[in-house]
Amino acid sequence: MATFNGLYTITNVLSETRLDLANGKKADGSKVVAWAPHQPTAGEAYGNQVWEIKPSKNQHCYTIVNAKTGTYLEVIGGMSEITRLGVDGVLKFRSYIHLNIR
Fold first, then answer.
1. How many helices (H) and strands (E) does the chain have?
2. Which domains does the chain carry?
3. pLDDT in tens, 55-98
């Protein structure tokens, strides 16, 4: 299994937007959106757009954790919308990570 451990921004290549925890909210149910790249607010180590990718308890799977809040990305209600952050429990979201290293 490849190792992806580390901090990343996740960018949509076509729109040049990044996966962003809306308003940096930590609560379950917080929205995750695609937003223009931006820097952290003064005094913050990481902004809403920095994510930690680390191995999950499930083999060949990874969790995606917001570096600012420590909350986990989770898909609720199918694959049409990413709407909630949760805890590292039951696997509800599986994705493939492709890195383009230049």
1. 0, 8
2. 6-86 (2.80.10.50)
3. 877 767 778 899 999 988 876 665 544 444 444 444 444 444 44
- What pLDDT is stored for residue 69 in this prediction? 92
Cα–Cα nearest to 89, from 69, 72, 70, 65: 72
From CA 14, how far away is CA 62, in angstroms rounded?
24
pLDDT at 102: 35
Q: What is the C-alpha to C-alpha distance for residues 36 and 50, in angstroms, rounded to an integer?
A: 13
pLDDT reported for residue 101: 39
Using H for helix, E for strand and C for coil, what is the string for 48-94? CCCEEEEECCCCCCEEEEECCCCCEEECCCCCCCCCEEECCCCCCCC
